[in-house]
Amino acid sequence: MATPTFGTVAPSNPMLTAWVEKIRALAQPDRVFWADGSEAEKEFLLAEAVASGVLTKLNQDKLPGCYYHRSNPNDVARVEQCTFICTPAKDQAGPTNNWATPREMYEKLYALLKGAMAGRTMYVVPYLMGPPGSPLTKVGVEITDSIYVVLNMRIMSRMGKVALDQLGAGDDFNRGVHSVLDCHPDRRFIAHFPQDNAIISVGSGYGGNVLLGKKCLALRIGSYLGREQGWMAEHMLILCVESPTGEKTYVAAAFPSSCGKTNFAMLIPPAAFPGWKITTIGDDIAWMKPGADGKLYAINPEAGYFGVAPGTNRKSNPNAMDTISRDTIYTNVALTPDGGVWWEGHDDPAPVECLDWKGQPWTPASKEKAAHPNSRFTAPMANNPALAAEANDPAGVPLSAIIFGGRRATTMPLIFQSFNWIHGVYLGATMGSEMTAAAAGTLGQVRRDPMAMLPFCGYNMGDYLNHWLGIRRDLTDPPRIFHVNWFRKDAGDKFLWPGFGENFRVLKWVIDRTRGRARASETQIGWMPRYSEFDWTDMDFSREKFAQCMRIDAAEWQRELISQTELFLTLHDRLPKELIFQRELLISRL
Ligand code: SAT
Ligand code: MN
User: DSSP letters along 62-75, please?
Assistant: First the structure.
């Protein structure tokens, strides 16, 4: 049998091949590789990635199908200061985005791309964001000189032939170009051209900067397209809660990066709730559109999870541990001598010795962390024991609730419900969260992060909030909107709420509220559960502790309102007046 040759078959779509030829002529790669997404191709690419040192094969007895990657130590997180929205006018990108004109940015980046792939292979990766055949699904094509990107995109999206089939002879696809260049922070740009449905990312090899289907297309370009086309692209997990009688309720939740979306999406109810089950539709991104029945329908455009490794363990997320036990690419975690992986918060005790995320010898006596705090796993969602069948449903799922939440040591109670949609949009718009390692920046500082979309909104944030209000017109049965905070601390800096599986008790109240089964008390900030309205079976949590979790502290809220002013000032010229009224109402209630 002749040796199969991979990557040699160009698709027949002339629009696609013409664009690829344009980039080839510019970047001057040695070779063009057309990815088809097949299993045989995957094996070929993995072998090549191992041979070239991009991936290390892990211990296949312990971690079948798993590989290990270290990124450049200067390139370990999203870089918001290098991320641009390129539109003719600055106010189209708005005050919360870096802006450049398309002309200026194309010029700059084409100059950087000139000859950049000499000596390299240029991979052409067609992919779908969304289940095949869904009216919400979008086609993208990513050109990249990184084999790591190809292998990650293969997990994170539906990649290859399936995307070419959906594209057919059409021209409606996102054009993404990526080159690692020399991976220098001075030549790092993640540029979005919403009006051209195009992305150029250079100078980075890190996930969120280079897996162009994810934050770049599914959120930044997606949010722009959503406004034009009457749908929404949101930084939200989607889950299904199934009751013992088989009743299913769908919930989406927006938390900023590294605040537990993956854990919440895969939550296992405590033993005290026999017959209750949670299944995962998505862990990071939701595309939502009003349906003909007046409900808001959501799909998960992704096919995999790009999750934070540190802190993931059998207690925090057993489903994730199963998911990442095979067919997973680990990035920037620690490598153990037996070809296994480890990170801070792993179930296994710290290895006596290992190599840290930079490849340096590490022991438990080392001062540095073994795994980078933003080290990641890339795993197919099909591995998730709790995967919902609906994750592949082109119709999506009708949402009953949307939950907003951030990481807040103070002020924000464990749970409350908005009075209505507009108030709920106000809660999302004024969301704050302490910064995490997912983006380069100051850890721990509270910043306003509207709908957890601050780094991901591809147009003017004021217009985005208006779009949220406008969507209500197409909904006769809108999802109810809630706010949670798992991270409130006591005076001794200890978390008040145990979190993890116990979050189900909060979620159950949410579900019961949407179904008109649970009572709530009206407070200044929204509807709140009384202690007696939670199911405390098998949980020892006193009335006093609950009161501490739920406390509305006048001084803290004064500070909160002042800190919200910054956001309102930033957005002043396009801030919906509804939100200004909501704030006034809140001030008078407080
Ligand atoms: O790095 S990613 O942007 O893909 C993950 C995240 O920060 O949410
Ligand atoms: Mn995210």
Answer: TSTT-EEE---TT-
Distance between CA atoms of residues 20 and 122, nearest Å: 10
For the segment 62-80, the average pLDDT, to the nearest whole number, is 96
Length of the chain: 590
Q: Which residues are catalytically annotated?
A: 259
The helix/strand/coil state of 38 is coil
Nearest CA to ligand 1 atom 1: 208
Instruction: Give CA–CA dist 117/21, Å, rounded.
Output: 13
In a domain, 43, yes or no: yes
* Long-range contacts from 354-363, C-beta under 8 angstroms, 24+ separation: 357/70, 357/73, 357/332, 357/333, 358/70, 358/73, 359/70, 362/334
pTM: 0.97
Q: Is the pLDDT of residue 494 over 60?
A: yes
Specify if 129 maps to a domain: yes
Cβ-based neighbours of 112, under 8 Å, separated by 6 or more: 179, 181, 187, 189, 202, 203
Question: Would you tell me how many other CB atoms lie within 10 Å of the CB of residue 133?
Answer: 14
| Strand-strand pairing, 329-331 and 376-380 | antiparallel
82-121 pLDDT, tens digit per residue, is 999 999 999 999 999 999 999 999 999 999 999 999 999 9
Grouping H, G, I as helix, E, B as strand and the rest as coil, residue 398 is strand
- Strand-pair category, 432-434 with 446-448: antiparallel
Only one residue has tokens 């220098």, namely 184
184 Cα to the center of ligand 1, angstroms: 20
- Contact between 571 and 453 (Cβ < 8 Å): no
Query: 5 alpha carbon to ligand 2 midpoint, in Å?
Result: 36
Please check whether residue 274 lies inside any domain of the structure. yes
CB environment 449-464: b (16+ within 10 A), e (fewer) = bbbbbbbbbbbbbbbb
Residue 35 sits in a domain whose CATH number is 3.40.449.10
257 ligand 1 Cβ < 6 A: yes
pLDDT in the model for residue 566: 87
Report the percentage of the chain scoring pLDDT > 90. Answer: 96
Q: Assess whether the C-beta atom of 261 lies below 6 angstroms from ligand 1.
A: no
Q: Domain span at residue 183?
A: 5-55+75-229
User: What value, to the nearest 5°, has the Cα angle with vertex 385 and ends 379 and 389?
Assistant: 95
Same domain, 265 and 359: no
Last residue of a domain, one of 182, 207, 229: 229
Helix (H, G, I), strand (E, B) or coil at 200: strand
Q: Give, using CA atoms, the residue closest to atom 6 of ligand 1.
A: 257
Asked if residue 9 belongs to a domain, the reply is yes
Nearest to 486 by CA among 414, 589, 573: 414
Which of 361, 383, 405 terminates a domain? The answer is 383
* Pocket lining: 220 vs ligand 1, CB cutoff 6 Å: no
- pLDDT(145) > 60: yes
pLDDT at residue 552 is higher than 90: yes
